[in-house]
Design brief:
The chain has about 260 residues and is an alpha/beta fold. The protein has nine helices and ten strands. The longest helix is centred in the first third of the chain and has 18 residues, at about 15-30. Residues about 250-255 have low confidence and may be disordered.
């Protein structure tokens, strides 16, 4: 077993959900494992298992090894309670993974109008110092059949739902599907520095903002120094007077 998982909001009562978080965190602490809970994937503002998860992470010394996935009930919680909750999550070292595609599809489904957005409070969590990543969650299953495993699509949806369309916000969403996610997973050898394991994707884009905006073409994919896949550079043919007849979509000058 590599990771202890749980889904406390599926227990029959709130108290049993709380007990399950405590028990699972104790198992993770005893065995020295990471912990990832499907936590509060609900529109119910009283589903507050993330609070218990953060408390148990602190109590058991699990800082940096615990993650709460979804945490969508936070989008319906009152601001006073959240003002107490965010510091607790940050102090506990618990990461949060939002799943923009499935969160915006499933949450708020019982609402008429006004209709809630459904995703957790991404910019607020980031501002509080919490490590926030984006996941895909469902790819092709009964809950979501439109998935492609494309993390640029995830980042693109995430920045819209979280209203993070500033230059800084877009870059933060790129981090959410790269460095922040690697931190949650405790990936060893991650990055482009010397000595890393040379697993990376080369994008046909000038920067992170362009990569998300255009869902950039993936030119090459390497895994531990081995080239796994490659796609030709996208070139547009033009029939406009006094313009080049062909032009590359964008010159490649940055690696991610």
């Amino acid at each position: 077993m590599d990771v202890v998982g749980g889904i406390p909001h599926f227990e029959r009562t709130m108290l049993e959900g709380t007990a399950s978080v405590k028990l699972l965190c104790e198992i993770a602490a005893e065995r020295g494992l990471l912990t990832d809970m499907h936590c509060d994937e609900s529109d119910d503002p009283l589903s507050r298992h993330i609070e218990t998860l953060a408390f148990e992470a602190q109590r058991l010394g699990l800082q940096g090894r615990v993650n709460g996935s979804h945490c969508t009930s936070m989008h319906s919680m009152d601001n006073y309670y959240v003002s107490k909750l965010l510091p607790l999550i940050a102090e506990s070292g618990v990461s949060v993974i939002a799943n923009p595609l499935i969160n915006i599809t499933l949450q708020g489904r019982h609402d008429t109008y006004p209709k809630r957005r459904g995703m957790t409070r991404v910019p607020e969590l980031m501002a509080a110092g919490v490590n926030v990543a984006f996941g895909h969650d469902c790819v092709m299953d009964p809950w979501y059949g439109m998935g492609s495993g494309d993390m640029l699509e995830v980042a693109h949806m995430g920045l819209h739902v979280a209203q993070m369309t500033s230059q800084k916000g877009i870059r933060q969403c790129f981090d959410a599907v790269t460095t922040n996610a690697a931190k949650v997973m405790h990936l060893q050898g991650y990055g482009l520095e010397s000595g890393c394991d040379a697993s990376f994707v080369l994008l046909q884009a000038r920067d992170a903002i362009e990569a998300i905006r255009l869902r950039a073409n993936r030119l090459k994919v390497w895994k531990k120094g081995k080239l796994l896949a490659e796609t030709p550079e996208v070139v547009a043919s033009l029939t406009v007077a006094n313009r080049p007849t062909k032009t590359a979509f964008f010159k490649v000058n940055q690696e991610f």
